[in-house]
């Protein structure tokens, strides 16, 4: 049997609440006591609310549930997919990303 290590890749990821705020700021229609956006686009992907604790996310493997406590990851080719919070914490660690201003010489 062969063994493999996952290549180190930096990914973007947002929380459930950050996705909700993105939907609100996009001008999506909101409803309910929590003022939850119903349907909006995130990075070119259609997002639909199932209930106050779940959004339906289109992935390469089909539609998946993104629930509170999880992270929404943007993959290396722009695809998005949800990841449970405990799995995300076990798999990923924060990294420092240089600001664009740091890339320019003065």
What does this structure look like?
This protein has 106 residues and is α+β, with helices and mostly antiparallel strands. The chain contains 2 helices and 9 strands; from the N terminus they run βαββββββββα. The strands form 3 sheets. A 4-stranded antiparallel beta sheet has the order 4-5-6-7, with helices on one face. The protein is globular and about 50 Å long. The N and C termini lie far apart (53 Å).
Give the overall average pLDDT. 90
Order of helices and strands: EHEEEEEEEEH
Strand content: 35-45%
Q: Helical element count?
A: 2
Distance between the termini: 53 Å
Unreliable parts? none
Helix share bin = 10-25%
Give Rg in angstroms: 16 Å
Sheet/helix structural class:
alpha+beta
- Biggest beta sheet attributes: 4 strands, antiparallel
Total domains: 1
Strand order of the largest sheet: 4-5-6-7
User: So what's the overall shape?
Assistant: globular
Number of strands: 9
């Amino acid at each position: 049997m062969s063994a493999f290590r996952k290549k180190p890749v930096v990914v973007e990821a947002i929380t459930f609440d950050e996705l909700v705020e993105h939907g609100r700021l996009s001008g999506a229609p909101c409803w309910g006591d929590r003022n939850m956006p119903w349907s909006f686009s995130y990075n070119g992907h259609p997002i639909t609310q199932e209930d106050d604790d779940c959004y339906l996310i289109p992935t390469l493997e089909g539609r998946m549930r993104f629930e509170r406590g999880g992270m929404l990851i943007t993959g290396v080719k722009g695809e998005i997919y949800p990841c449970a919070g405990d799995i995300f914490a076990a798999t990923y660690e924060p990294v420092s990303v240089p600001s664009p201003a740091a890339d320019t010489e003065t």
